[in-house]
Design brief:
33% of the residues lie in helices and 26% in strands. The protein is of the alpha+beta class. β1 and β2 form a beta hairpin. α2 crosses α3. It starts with a strand and ends in a 14-residue tail after the last helix.
Length: 225
């Protein structure tokens, strides 16, 4: 029911995850990232607890492989889960349990891992990673959204997707971008890309306002003087 991409920018250390599904509100359950720590994607028959748990393990200094081993040992019903872990050095680990639905696949490369289930074809995930790697000079948000669009062009899920989301984390304790299209009968990935284009020019200003309001840019809203 889901395809996703987890990634790290080798130049800045920023982490990102983007995800889409036929079910509503996919990012609320499946997308987990923490600045300076890593990314966890938990999907298929989703257990949202695996996201924070995996990030806690990475924060303790475990590698992606070590964190996945711990998750597999501790988490119930792990055969139903598809999980990707990406650590602070850009290493990844992946699990697709024996109960993963339909055609499923995971593809990994340095600083990136993509996974999907109920896919129209296994090559969908390959196109995601190829697209990400081909845009090494672009902003991380642009790269993962290009990968999501490539997944759709390659066939995406067996059925239509209805929700999509993207999380970016970088240096501060909260996500610098947490953008979601929780339901759309049209094209949630295109809507997410449009929302990113609106958010990206303002993203750093919102961080500045949180850290030092007196030195931050003006709000640019009616009544602001």
């Amino acid at each position: 029911m889901t395809f996703s991409i987890a990634a790290r920018c080798a130049q800045t250390g920023m982490f990102a995850i983007a995800v889409s599904s036929s079910s509503p509100c996919v990012a609320a359950r499946c997308a987990h990232a923490r600045a300076g720590v890593g990314v966890v994607a938990t999907q298929n028959i989703t257990d949202p607890r695996l996201g924070p748990r995996g990030l806690d393990l990475l924060a303790q200094g475990l590698s992606a492989d070590e964190a996945m081993t711990r998750l597999a040992a501790d988490a119930p019903h792990f055969a139903y889960r598809q999980v990707v872990v990406l650590d602070r050095q850009g290493r990844s680990a992946a699990h697709s349990g024996s109960k993963t639905l339909g055609t499923h696949r995971v593809v990994r490369a340095p600083d990136v891992a993509a996974a999907g289930n109920l896919l129209s074809a296994p090559e969908v995930v390959d196109r995601m990673v190829e697209t990400f790697l081909a845009r090494s000079q672009a902003h991380l948000g642009d790269r993962i959204l290009a990968a999501m669009a490539a997944a759709v062009s390659a066939g995406g899920e067996e059925g239509p997707v209805h929700s999509a989301g993207m999380v970016l984390v970088d240096k501060v304790e909260w996500p610098v971008a947490d953008l979601r299209i929780d339901w759309s009968d049209a094209d949630p990935i295109a809507a997410l890309a449009a929302l990113w284009q609106l958010w990206r020019p303002q993203m750093n200003a919102y961080v500045a306002r949180a850290l030092d309001p007196a030195a931050a840019p003006a709000y640019g809203v009616p009544g602001d003087r």
